[in-house]
């Protein structure tokens, strides 16, 4: 149905007439337009496109010769082919400095994080060698620093050890870890390939802040074992068990030499962090502080032989690069399904972290990241990693920030880091033998401090109380139960919020702003005045099955309240109800039923039912269901002002 | 923060100035209002109130003396105390006719439905005796007819028999049925008491239509057993198994005498239905046809002794009213949990049906139904029923419609029906001994025909294609798998639709309607013209974590497309982006982050970022997060027209 526009009429325009008090009651300049009908196939493809290809990935391919399409296709899979062509010496200078900086930061972190995942230290280093290389070829973020991260290591460690005890069955445990890594990669690549990337958007920012904060606390608490030199430590991750374990060991379990080393270096690291924070020029101070701590403490232990006084050391760290682990992955048996489950969860969390980092830095430098392509890159990277003795790697918040501040230009900084890790694996690992665990614990604590984002939590509290509940719920869930429970709480609250949003849309009463034809919420604009005899209600959401009954009943309740008020104040009774439909973006069959019922109720009361400004989708559906004939086509107006003057010109004139 | 209104300024009003080409560039009549800040407690209680007490149940209690409150409280629990006081002889006349009509309809239906639930026929009658009595005292609907219904009977029969074989362990099966009924009641009452009634709104109208249609087909197919006189019939409910069973028995299993009886009475019943439909005056014809069929066929079988020629008959039906079943309910053991599960599902479906009926007829007669109170009534009714040998009862679509058409006035018609069922149980049941099963099958088929609502499905197809997918999915799920699978499909698609809605909100480009200051979607209003140098985008939904990234990227893509178009057409470059926020009803932390990132991207491009008409909640949160300082408080306008004239007065003047 084409829009029957009255634009050719030589009529005064509505806004003008209302302000001059000339009310033309019967005709208005514009009618509510009915958009041209699309055929079913087009409507369907448009919906699919907006849902799955919102970023229009084929856009550059349009109108290109097929040879060019081939090149563009290769570049789409390997972005390095695109940015590599314009790579320059100047960019390399930035990348090499950044790469060396993140390498010095990642080596001690990797060793610590591997312990969080209950794996031998070299597996952390392995995961900083192969995955960054793969990512450099396939990833599209220029600033992300790839490698093992604290939260995923913790999550993996918790979930894996609930299946297999790592101290008793180290080999099987490791095999399950590779299996989980493999399926984490498959999950990530599949989500990206099926363009289901938007699924990770269902974890709200607030839930992530809480989850990360809780994970930071849990990780820091776990480090008390290394920092205090406690030998018999609980295996449960919750704060109650850990504190019980810590205080239970206070008389016999603590080792003062360990504590001394730990506290000294923790203070040093936190001080370095403080300096880096105060002056961004000194960002490199906290970046190299961990490596300095490792070197100093290792040398100290080696000289004093503190390991004989109960100071625990790394002791054994394999030399050489990643061995193959293809035949260690479980492709059958009971561990296949368990690996799949753990991998899927760990993969999603890793994805969430990487995509959040990628987006943050992309918006800082103003380039676009294709979320789905990014997921495929991360997925392939983890699949390759799982076959080369790596566990789940992703983008690290802290190292990516350092990478950015050190002036990285492209993913080449990841290649540089990878090379340094390679050299470390080949030549330096034996030197880590005497590194005390206390220093690793201190490094991890100082690294996860940044994940505990009080500022963000305060902002969330200020902006949205319900968001804060999600944040707090996720935090408490992680701290008092486990990362999995915390995650579950976060996801549940996030979903509940979405459901609440669609079940209970807001409604508001509109009033006329003095000396204008603009109608606005009277709560927001106290100067807005109600028009006598007319109630104007705005519905603030699509009307769907989940809220149609609520909307109907809420509008009737507004009407009832208003009728009571009017009666008490001896004002003219309500004769018309105008529903401002601008924010009603869509309506379904239940919604139309609700409007029909509303119309029936209003008819019984002798109140006119008028709609203002229904949008394209809504008007199409109202016509499809013949609703416009039910209430009368002349009861649908372009603006609230039109609707008001149609039903009560007298009163309007009185008021103006 | 109080709204700093400029309403006292002696300025020309915006709409006037634009039409007269006087563009006052620096000042506007009204600023965007910031609603007065509410304290946390008030905000919280307001949210809780809108979510759980949207219908304001305590409204009548306000400002009443406490003795009056007591009376009102009793009336709230037992509405009969309220409407009973104004009960009159005139009303009773309507009720008695309606009650007798639904009684004659329910007796044969009850016997058939009990068989659907794999229970002996008298249990159907029991369920039409006690529950309607309880409901009459506690329920608030005046038109609903209470008793066993086809869909719930089928659902219960399917789920119960997957736990216990009713032919082998009839006693245990029955006990589980009472247990499920008990927990169905508990579920219903709990949902109502906790005011969680809105949960049943999550099953969309479309999904219900499909589910009901599928259940109708499944039930009708099951009746082929009785109608064709097949002895060995499949126990699987899906269409493939049933048809296989029917055709496999064609040579030996069918009984021609049974078929004769069945087909004759089915034709009679359908013809009666047709007459009732053609002329609403004859609504009583289809209502008494079932009882007539039962009487005639029973007499016929008794006279001809057709039961000896293979015509299956009811054979045994217990005389007397409901025995107690309190001690038959499983309150411990493995069947406790199973009963709970089955009861919860059956209770929800029963609830859905009853509430839908209640709402439909309430809106026809224009009275209000309190959904939550209604649920408590239904719940208590089923708990009492489970202790008096009833299985799950609820409101029946077909009988409620008959009740309504027969002119019922109050729930007294249910009491009348209950009395008739009582007399039947006490005196007439032995007469049903020779009733052929084929007639019961015919009665059930003619009853469920109405559940298969093709008209509604066509309307759904016309209005919303995605709704139709939900409808079809639920239908096919029930027909080809089972009621449970169909229900699962319906719920899943309903949820997926909600999630899709919040993940992919619509965005649109606005243009100016000629000779007005109104800006509208250019797809809906092809006559609307873009303002040169300015892009106006409307976001059609709250901006939440689930869509914030999409919204940001979609707006940037609109901008990119527009920049390309403008370049190709040699028009002025885009210098301002106005985001029309009217439909943006809420924003959370993720949403504000997205706006900040959008602002940063636009700054890099040298494009101004302007907001028009943010609502009360949005503006409050923008202020809480200091966003208004980031983009500049003078970049937030009351209307799009204000925003446009602020950034391009020259062009506007040129155009007008």
UniProtKB/TrEMBL annotation, chains A, B:
InterPro entries given in the database record: S04_transporter_CS (IPR018045), SLC26A/SulP_dom (IPR011547), SLC26A/SulP_fam (IPR001902), STAS_dom (IPR002645), STAS_dom_sf (IPR036513)
Membrane-traversing stretches: 144-164, 176-194, 206-224, 254-275, 282-303, 342-362, 374-394, 414-432, 439-461, 473-496
One Pfam family recorded for the sequence: STAS
GO molecular function: secondary active sulfate transmembrane transporter activity; symporter activity
Cell compartment(s), UniProt: Membrane
Gene Ontology CC annotations of this record: membrane
Keyword Transport: yes
Topology of the protein relative to the lipid bilayer: Multi-pass membrane protein
Signal peptide range: none
Keywords (A to Z) from UniProt: Membrane, Sulfate transport, Symport, Transmembrane, Transmembrane helix, Transport
Chain ranges of the STAS domain: 524-647
UniProt keyword annotation of Cell membrane present: no
Main location: membrane
Entry superkingdom: Eukaryota
Entry protein name: Sulfate transporter 1.3-like
Gene: LOC111311268
């Amino acid at each position: 149905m084409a829009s029957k526009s009255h634009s050719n009429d030589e009529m005064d325009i509505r806004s003008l007439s209302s302000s001059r008090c000339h009310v033309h009651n019967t005709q208005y300049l514009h009618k509510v337009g009915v958009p041209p009908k699309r055929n079913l196939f087009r409507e369907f493809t448009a919906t699919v496109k907006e849902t799955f290809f919102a970023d229009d990935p084929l856009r550059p391919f349009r109108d290109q010769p097929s040879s060019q399409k081939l090149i563009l296709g290769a570049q789409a899979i390997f972005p390095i082919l695109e940015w590599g062509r314009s790579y320059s010496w100047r960019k390399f200078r930035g990348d090499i400095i950044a790469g060396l900086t993140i390498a010095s930061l990642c080596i001690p972190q990797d060793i610590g994080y591997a312990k969080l995942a209950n794996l031998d230290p070299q597996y952390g280093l392995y995961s900083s060698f192969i995955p960054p290389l793969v990512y450099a070829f396939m990833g599209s973020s220029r600033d992300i620093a790839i490698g093992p991260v604290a939260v995923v290591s913790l999550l993996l460690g918790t979930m894996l050890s609930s299946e297999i005890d790592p101290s008793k069955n180290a080999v099987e445990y490791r095999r399950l870890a590779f299996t989980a890594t493999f399926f984490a990669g498959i999950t990530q690549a599949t989500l990206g390939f099926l363009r289901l990337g938007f699924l990770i958007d269902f974890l709200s920012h607030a839930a992530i802040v809480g989850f990360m904060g809780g994970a930071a606390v849990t990780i820091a608490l776990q480090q008390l074992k290394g920092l205090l030199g406690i030998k018999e430590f609980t295996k449960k991750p919750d704060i109650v068990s850990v504190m019980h374990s810590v205080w239970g060991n206070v008389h016999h379990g603590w080792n003062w030499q360990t504590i001394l080393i730990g506290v000294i270096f923790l203070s040093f690291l936190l001080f370095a962090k403080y300096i880096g924070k105060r002056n961004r020029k000194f960002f490199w101070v906290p970046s190299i502080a961990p490596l300095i701590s490792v070197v100093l403490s290792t040398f100290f232990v080696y000289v004093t032989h503190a390991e004989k006084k109960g100071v625990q050391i790394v002791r054994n760290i394999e030399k050489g690069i990643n061995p193959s682990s293809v035949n260690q992955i479980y492709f059958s048996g009971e561990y296949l399904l368990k690996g799949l489950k753990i991998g899927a969860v760990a993969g999603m969390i890793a994805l969430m972290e990487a995509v959040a980092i990628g987006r943050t830095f992309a918006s800082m430098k103003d380039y676009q990241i294709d979320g789905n392509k990014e997921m495929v890159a991360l997925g392939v990277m983890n699949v390759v990693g799982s076959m080369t003795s790596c566990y789940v790697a992703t983008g690290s918040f802290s190292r990516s920030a350092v990478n950015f501040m050190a002036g990285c230009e492209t993913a080449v900084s990841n290649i540089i880091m990878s090379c340094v890790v390679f050299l470390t694996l080949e030549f330096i690992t034996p030197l880590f033998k005497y590194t005390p665990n206390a220093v690793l614990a201190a490094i991890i604590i100082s690294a996860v401090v940044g994940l505990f984002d009080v500022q963000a939590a305060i902002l969330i509290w200020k902006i949205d109380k319900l968001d804060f509940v999600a944040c707090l719920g996720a935090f408490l869930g992680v701290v008092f139960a486990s990362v999995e429970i915390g995650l579950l709480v976060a996801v549940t609250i996030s979903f509940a919020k979405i459901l609440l949003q669609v079940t209970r849309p807001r409604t508001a009463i509109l009033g006329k702003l003095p000396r204008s034809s603009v109608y606005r919420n009277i709560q927001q604009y106290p100067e807005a005045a109600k028009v006598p005899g007319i109630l104007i209600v705005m519905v603030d959401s699509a009307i769907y099955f989940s809220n149609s009954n609520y909307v109907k009943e809420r509008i009737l309740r507004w009407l009832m309240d208003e009728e009571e008020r009017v009666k008490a104040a001896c004002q003219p009774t309500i004769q018309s109800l105008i529903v401002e439909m601008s924010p009603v973006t869509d309506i379904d069959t239940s919604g139309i039923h609700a409007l029909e019922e509303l119309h029936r109720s209003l008819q019984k009361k002798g109140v006119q039912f008028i709609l203002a400004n229904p949008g394209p989708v809504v008007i199409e559906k109202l016509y499809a269901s013949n609703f416009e004939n039910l209430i009368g086509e002349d009861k649908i107006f372009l603006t609230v002002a039109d609707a008001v003057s149609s039903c009560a010109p007298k009163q309007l004139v009185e008021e103006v």
